Amino acid sequence: MDSIVPECTICSEGYEVDGRKVPILLDCGHTFCRDCISQLEIALDQKCFTCQQSVLKYDNKRKVQNLKKNYELVQILEQIVKEKERNQLVILIACCPASIQVNHFRDFFVTQLENKPDAPILMHTQEQSFIQEKVIELVYPNVTNRGRAAFELHEKVYRYGLDINQSCIIVSLNEEREKQLPKSFKASLQKYDFVMIQYNVPMMRNTHTDLIRIDHPPVGFNYRDALFLEKQINYTNGLKIEQQDLAVRYYSYQNIVFVVIYVGSCGKIERIIEFLKQSKFDYTSQRVKATIEHQLHQPNNYLQFKRI
Ligand SMILES: [Zn+2]
Ligand SMILES: [Zn+2]
């Protein structure tokens, strides 16, 4: 059942729980939105729009910002919001450059979902992020069976062959995957019904400081090498793999080739950078070492493999 949001009789816009459209109760008992009532502040007579009683005296204490909300109405509004959220399905999809087929993903999987052709699709790039993930946020306003909708998407992702090692997409609906997500991360995603993030990089991370990006990995370096490097770093730095605190991923898309080391909550980024700079690695029959090439966004986490 759809509840109709009560609206302000002056501007005919729906009231909101907070902000410019919050309902304000005047002394006369009439209610209008904050926006409309602010007009009274500059009006000479300062009378209620409906009953014409003087409601604002020439007194600072009676300024609009000091007037009380209509709390009863706010309560009703909150219930309406909750009810709406119950029927809303929100899907968040974050893809790294390796799975840049975001449009393909959207057209092929998302739009095939039944019952919800009306999802506004918000696509944005995490500009501030070191790896510039593409993020798709889907908000379906009215989905009666959310479990089923999410399940359908989950099924399609796997059925239509996104190679798990290449796709860099995880559907956290999968129970096994869910178990791997750290609690803090799960909590931060709770408002989403359905989350896909870079494959197997489920840790909580800060986009500014906890990535190490290594450009120009040796020719032939692939995701197996990335997993090997991951094991080496974990082993040498005493990180436990089951804590999911570190993940090394290899990304290749058109001319962009790089390795990203995601460091979670372990706080060992400095140590890991030191380790990389000091160690020699054998990859694709090349002996390489990580060196700092130049400073990009952050001075310490932009490295390059050099042949030695
Ligand atoms: Zn209004
Ligand atoms: Zn009035």
From TrEMBL:
<feature type="domain" description="RING-type">
    <location>
        <begin position="8"/>
        <end position="52"/>
    </location>
</feature>
<dbReference type="Pfam" id="PF13445">
    <property type="entry name" value="zf-RING_UBOX"/>
</dbReference>
<keyword id="KW-0863">Zinc-finger</keyword>
<keyword id="KW-0862">Zinc</keyword>
<dbReference type="InterPro" id="IPR001841">
    <property type="entry name" value="Znf_RING"/>
</dbReference>
<dbReference type="InterPro" id="IPR017907">
    <property type="entry name" value="Znf_RING_CS"/>
</dbReference>
<protein>
    <submittedName>
        <fullName>E3 ubiquitin-protein ligase trim23-like</fullName>
    </submittedName>
</protein>
<dbReference type="InterPro" id="IPR027370">
    <property type="entry name" value="Znf-RING_euk"/>
</dbReference>
<dbReference type="InterPro" id="IPR013083">
    <property type="entry name" value="Znf_RING/FYVE/PHD"/>
</dbReference>
<dbReference type="GO" id="GO:0008270">
    <property type="term" value="F:zinc ion binding"/>
</dbReference>
<keyword id="KW-0479">Metal-binding</keyword>
<dbReference type="InterPro" id="IPR052667">
    <property type="entry name" value="E3_ubiquitin-ligase_RING"/>
</dbReference>
